[in-house]
């Protein structure tokens, strides 16, 4: 049984002024139809690219990456199939040597987690908003893009760029899991290619080095008090929202409050916003900033704090109301229904008193030590507590006990008089 508490969040529009931003183009668009940094025609893959410091020409806080594309897919399908993780690193490395000097992901800064690219109306550009990354321009810049899709894209997604020796490596697959070590062991090829890339620099400078962790810093300005929303661990987090001034072209993102940048793309499902799954995309106990954008500086945001939901106890019932303990295969069993993963404490069995509710929302409890008797016996289970994490279910008004009658094995014989 799954339960997700939904709390209504009203988003009021504010206008945010963005000053001091600059864009830098690296490379040209002289070569087309290259499959880097992304090829969603394969279900999963990794690409890595090196940009030289002289090509970038300045340091600062990188906030967006734009690439130049060509595809027969429509705009929405490109965005659906361009969900990636992005990593950056300041590096002395200037080229790849037969994959042996690929960037281990653990040494890079993660600047985007499952973020979708934003495609312009002409389908010629795709832009990724990232967590602000501090590029020092004293070294070169390394980029890694990772994608994992459940389905194939309907067509190729090509990128434009220029010929540059030993500057991009990639590996992709439709079947086996792809990791950064796959680049070393079985890379598909060195493309001798540099994708044309536009870097957008902002004023923030919050990244402090290549730690292999998500960058942290000042959060997006917001004065809203976080709204607490109950969620169950491991389940999809859906937030009911109400907006004004939005359209079908509006984009929604979420990120931890302490993290800069645009964060990850949220999915609108009717009047609810999906933040992905708890434990994978978001974590109980953290506060997240939710932002809606109509493009440019037309944005609004609010805050939500995810708290652990109380587990639910639904029922306890006997599998069979009456059994014969001497009969083969007959057992004293009860089915308990409630929140998946919750621990149930009960009485009635002298040898065991706890059980964990399964992913289907049920658990079957079998009493031990049930023996045949010459008299009828009633076995009773009583639920005393249902807990998950630090929260306990409210058992008020619930039927907490159930019985199984254990019948005595009858005997019969002929008596002569």
Globally, the shape reads elongated
CA radius of gyration? 29 Å
Any guess at the CATH architecture of the largest domain?
Sandwich
For the secondary structure, the number of strands is: 33
How far do the termini sit from each other?
63 Å
The whole-number mean of residue pLDDT values reads: 80
Count of helical regions: 3
Helical content stands at under 10%
Unreliable stretches covering 5 or more consecutive residues: 1-20, 204-223
CATH fold descriptor of the largest domain? Jelly Rolls
Number of domains: 3
- Structural category is mainly beta
> Under the CATH scheme, which class of the largest domain?
Mainly Beta
How would you characterize the largest beta sheet? Answer: 8 strands, antiparallel
Q: Which percent range describes the beta-strand content? A: over 45%
Can you tag this structure with a few keywords?
mainly beta, Immunoglobulin-like, disordered N terminus, Jelly Rolls, 4% helix, 417 residues, elongated, six-stranded mixed sheet
Summarize the structure.
With 417 residues, the chain is mainly beta. It has helices at 53-56, 75-80, 180-186, and strands at residues 9-11, 14-15, 22-26, 31-34, 44-51, 60-71, 83-91, 109-116, 118-119, 125-135, 140-148, 157-163, 168-173, 189-190, 193-195, 197-202, 227-231, 236-243, 251-256, 264-265, 267-269, 272-277, 287-293, 298-308, 313-318, 322-324, 333-338, 343-347, 354-356, 362-366, 377-388, 391-392, 401-407. β19 and β20 (264-265) form a beta hairpin.
